[in-house]
Design goal:
The protein has 17 helices and 20 strands. The protein folds into three domains: 80 residues; 89 residues, OB fold (Dihydrolipoamide Acetyltransferase, E2P) (Beta Barrel); 274 residues, Purple Acid Phosphatase, chain A, domain 2 (4-Layer Sandwich). 30% of the residues lie in helices and 23% in strands. The strands form four sheets. It has a seven-stranded mixed beta sheet with strand order 3-4-14-15-16-18-17, with helices on one face. It has a six-stranded mixed beta sheet with strand order 13-12-11-10-19-20. A five-stranded mixed β-barrel has the order 5-6-7-9-8.
Length: 523
């Protein structure tokens, strides 16, 4: 055993099982072995490092080993597999497509949507454990948390400066108007107090929601911490990806085929433009269709009274009729929303062939999950698009005061900013009937593991464009007039707008295909 690793074991008072010794010995680079052990002790919060500890922290191991040089990685992976620990990534499926005819190439990472067993409490425990480890790894890379970072069970009885990473499990205002928080990690829990007279940090703490996973700098002891600063995992895109080829990508959502309010004439106008000789239309190579493509059946009480087409089969046949007219040079990616023929719980599987069989015969249509990560490829460049229909947008707006006060349903891209800050599409479990999770102990597919170039959503029927730390945020328009429900809650849709982004110049253009007479007819 290398002396540097032995020094780590002695200084930290670790007990190492024989199998773990063998794993550390398999590293070609002993500095990497030392780093692996130090971070494993920090992530797990355990002094006794056993095979069981490795099994419970497979997300960390997968990430660390994946960054090793090829030769070293293969040797280490072989030892890990021999220990009975699988490094297979179940939670995503990669599909690589290449068209020699048009030179298009892309890679799709689908969410893991299999649900082939009865769910138990341990599935939810494993799901939140996996989510914690995914976001903990992101937070550990933040330079603000590099110093004095400890697991909660290592905070002693003497007052000191510490950094922790924890999930928010409790939040309340005390009688003195201070904010009392409770943080948990894999090793324990601790209270954190934020004084009301510290306005900047109090505002940060007030924004925290239950189940948020954050980094905290504080002073105190094992009884209570006095919070000095709070750090989200956050998303930063440091370099803009630009293609050499002069190509466009376009985004649409919420078509709502089958609804009496469906704006079919306006959608026909959009299709005519796609098939025209317009310069921007001819450059489009990819079209992202972000959910709620049909109005569905039985989505809400009395829906049958507002349907033009009474079955999902008829509605998807109408949609297929539209999409077959999209030029073959354009590859379409279509994910479901709550109105589509797919379970409502997220992550959502691709739309069901039972009802949407007409879509399965369209050669340039790729059906994907909700959410889905699409990489558009040009040589060694990747332009990354995160598709998510956006069911959690309402929860963010309802729960975060900043969004409520700005009436963010009118500027919904502001809600996507909070997804990127938290690196999670729907972190607040159980607060809304909009979102139901399917737990997966192999990894939470609603975690934003990699920072995209674009996040595109639908759901709110209003086009909004914004940027956050270099990431372009788009909420989609719709192809449906104002419904009775929208009129009741005061939501005014902004239909028939199509954003088109050029991958060479990064220029974004908005095209309006709305026909005024149809708006009047459909409310």
């Amino acid at each position: 055993m290398d002396t540097e690793i032995l020094d780590v074991i002695r200084k930290k008072g670790l007990l190492i099982e024989r199998d773990v010794f063998d794993l550390l010995e398999s590293f070609h680079d002993k500095a990497s072995a030392k780093s692996f052990l130090e971070n494993l002790e920090r992530v797990s919060g355990q002094k006794m490092i056993t095979r069981n500890v490795l099994s419970k922290n497979v997300e960390y191991i997968r990430s660390f080993v994946g960054n090793l040089e090829d030769d070293s990685r293969k040797v280490v992976e072989k030892v890990i597999v021999n220990l009975g620990i699988s490094l297979e990534v179940r939670r995503e499926k990669e599909v690589v497509k290449e068209s020699t005819e048009s030179g298009k190439k892309y890679k799709i990472e689908l969410a893991e949507t299999a649900n082939d067993k009865k769910l138990e409490v341990r599935d939810f425990v494993g799901h939140f454990r996996a989510r914690f480890q995914q976001l903990q790894r992101i937070l550990m890379s933040r330079p603000e948390l590099q110093k004095n970072l400890v697991s909660i069970n290592k905070i002693g009885g003497e007052r000191s400066m510490v950094g922790i990473i924890g999930i928010v499990s409790e939040k309340r205002i005390t009688k003195n108007k201070n904010l009392m928080l409770k943080f948990e990690d894999m090793t324990g829990e601790i209270k954190g107090l934020v004084k009301f007279d510290r306005e900047e940090i109090f505002a940060k703490a007030e924004e925290l929601q239950l189940d948020d996973i954050v980094g905290v700098k504080a002073s105190g002891n094992r009884d209570i911490l006095f919070v000095h600063d709070i750090f989200y995992p956050d998303a930063f895109l440091h370099e803009k990806t630009k293609f050499r080829e002069d190509v466009n990508i376009a985004f649409i959502s919420d078509i709502h085929c089958g609804s009496k309010k469906h704006l079919g004439e306006s959608f026909e106008k959009f299709l005519e433009w796609l098939n025209s000789e317009h310069e921007d239309a001819l450059k489009i190579r990819y079209l992202f269709i972000v959910g709620d493509t049909i109005d569905g059946v039985g989505i809400f009480p009395g829906q049958e009274n507002v349907l033009e087409l009474g079955s999902m089969g008829e509605q998807y046949a109408q949609l297929a009729g539209y999409l077959k007219r999209v030029p073959r040079r354009i590859t379409m990616f279509l994910c479901p929303g709550q109105h589509d023929a797919s379970r409502v719980a997220e992550p959502q599987p691709i739309v069901s062939k039972k009802y949407a069989h007409a879509l399965y015969n369209i050669d340039n249509l790729v059906l994907v999950t909700n959410p889905c990560f699409v990489r558009l490829l040009e040589d060694d460049k990747e332009f990354k698009v995160l598709m998510y229909h956006g069911g959690s947008i309402h929860t963010f707006i309802n729960e975060i005061r900043e969004l409520r006060e700005m009436k963010a349903h009118n500027c919904p891209a502001k809600a996507i900013k909070h997804m990127l800050k938290r690196r999670h599409l729907a972190p607040m479990y159980g607060l809304s009937n909009q979102i139901i999770y399917v737990p997966n102990s192999g990894g939470d597919d609603l975690v934003i593991r990699e920072v995209p170039d674009v996040v595109c959503t639908g759901e709110v029927h209003r086009l909004d464009v914004d940027k956050y730390n270099g990431v372009l945020m788009l909420t989609g328009s719709c192809w449906q007039g104002q419904t009775d429900f929208e009129e009741k809650i005061g939501n005014i849709p902004d239909p028939c707008k199509v954003p088109v982004l050029n991958l060479k110049s990064s220029e974004l253009k908005i095209f309006d295909f709305g026909i005024g007479e149809e708006f009047v007819k459909n409310g």
